[in-house]
Structure formats: structure tokens, C-alpha cells
Amino acid sequence: MRSKIREGLDILSEDGPISFIMEILSFLYGTIHYSIADSYTLAISNTEVEFTAPNRTVVRRNKRRFESERQELTDMLEEIEHSDVFFDIGANTGLYTLFAAKRRQSADVVAFEPYPPNLRLLKRDIDRNALENIDVREVALSDSEGKVEFSQPDEEDAGYGSGSIESSTDNSSTIVNVSARSGDELISQNEIPTPTIVKIDVEGAEPLVVDGMENALSHPDCRLVYCEIHQDDVECRPSITDFGTTLSDMKAHFEELGFEAEEIHTCGSEILLKAHKDAN
Q: Are residues 258 and 144 part of one domain?
């Protein structure tokens, strides 16, 4: 609440009283509306997904993510086929998971997410959309098995997208231990199938995920990876640099695994790589 008051005072001082009043009205509308309506719908092309609306903040956050990542989400939905196995690594509340599963209901979707508030909302929306082709894994994918330190907000915050495996340079206020597994280990133990399409968004720990599933990524069936690279030009936010890697290193690694990697979208410090294998 204190942050909202501070935000309002900043608007008043910087933009004037009219903008301040409009912000108050918007806040009141959202608060009242989402106390009555418990869901909302997002759509791309002919695919619609219904999402739970627990509060105004979660709705705004998911809609903002939907708009900012519409290009890559649309690209993924155009690529996914009925026989695919889609890994959503860093699933958050399930934007990609739900759209992929709804678009291709005969495909297998595996969602990896360690943060409990996100998991609860994801599972609720799987039920809400009556989707039966999603396997939710309550773990952080990494390069080894065991417990890892994971940074998260001081208070539960569904839809929070900056939780990450802790690096030695992080200074998060709240650190908890979560289970970590490597993708290759899960596959070798027949707990999950080999993926054909992979999406990775893990707030800087992308190198650990890739290192932990080199066998899966180099498999001929794995033809496509979307990897969001978090660089180090945002203060107090983890990046691949914290894990000893650069953007050039990531591209080179994907090439070693048989992919051609290209940058298809940039938003601030985040660069989306699309790594694909030659169909021949």
C-alpha cells in the first residue's frame, strides 16, 4: 500500500492533478471490477485462454507480460505442432504453458516453476481451462540435483517474475531453498519425455538450464528453443553475467548443440534468442 501512495504522489508531482485523479479512478475501477469478476480472457488468433483474476495487480502484470511478449508468444504458437513436447522452463503463472496446451491439445506440455504462489495460480487455470495435457513440475531446472538458494519477494506475490536461482552476486532480501533438477536427469529417469520445443526464462540462470539439458537439446527431435537472455545493465536484477556467461557464449553454446541462434526481439536488458535446427 505504501508503494501505491508513493506512486500516486510521484504522479501528482510530475504529471499534475488531472493525471493523479485519472490514476485514482483507474485503481478504484480495477479494484472493484476484479472483486466481482473472477476471470478474464486473453486471445491470440483463434486461441483463447481464460485466466483467474485474484486481484488487480496480478491481472495488470499478466496483461503487461502478454502485450510485451506477444511477438514471441505468437511465433511459438505458429511453430507448435500436435505431436510436440513443449517445455516451459520458468513458467511463472503459465502464460506460455496455457496457450501452448490450448493451441495443441494433443501435444505434451511440461511446466517448470518453483515459486508456490505462481504454482497455485497456474494449477487453478489449468483446471479452469479443462486442460489435461500439462505436467507441472515444482522444481527449478539447473545443472545439478539437490537444493538451491532461490530469491523471492518478502511477501507472497503471485505473478512475480523476478525470482531466480541465487548467484554469488545477488543481494535479495529473501532467500529460500528449493528443489533443483537437471532436465537430462529427469529425462534419463523417464519422468518426462524429450522436448521438441523449449522456452527458457529464468532471470539470468539460463546457462545453468542449458548446461543441465545438453543431451536433450542436442537430440535430433529437439528442433527449437526460445531463450530469454537477461543481461547485466539493470541494477539489482540477476543476469547471465552473474553466472559467468555472456550473450556470445550463449549463442556459441547453442551452435555447439546443433542450433542456429538469432536475436528476434529486444526489450530493455532482455534479448530473446530463437535457436532452431536445420530441417534437413
A: yes
- Indicate left, alpha or beta for 146 from its phi (over 0: left) and psi (-120 to 50: alpha): left
Give Cα separations from 36 to 1, 27, 52, 158, 280 (angstroms).
21, 15, 12, 19, 53
In a domain, 49, yes or no: no
State the DSSP string of 225-236.
Answer: EEEEEE-S-STT
Please tell me the predicted confidence (pLDDT) of residue 80.
97
> Based on the domain organization, do 179 and 85 belong to the same domain?
yes
Among 67-76, 125-134, 165-174, which range has the highest average pLDDT?
Answer: 125-134
pTM given for the model? 0.81
In a domain, 54, yes or no: no
Give per-residue pLDDT as tens, 189-232: 999 999 999 999 987 889 999 999 999 999 999 999 999 887 77
User: 15 and 87 share a domain?
Assistant: no
| Angle formed by the axes of helices 2-15 and 17-36, nearest 10° | 150
Which residue range forms the structural domain that includes residue 186? 67-276
- Angle (CA) 90-158-75 rounded to 5° is 40
Q: Which of 248, 254, 168 is nearest to 209 (CA)?
A: 254
For residue range 118-169, list pLDDT tens digits in order.
Answer: 899 999 999 999 999 999 999 989 988 888 766 665 555 564 544 455 554 4
Q: In what order do the strands lie in the sheet with 197-200?
A: 134-137, 108-112, 85-89, 197-200, 224-230, 270-276, 260-267
Number of H helices, E strands in the chain: 10, 13
In 92-203 the beta strands, taken as DSSP E runs, fall at 108-112, 134-137, 140-142, 146-151, 164-165, 175-182, 197-200
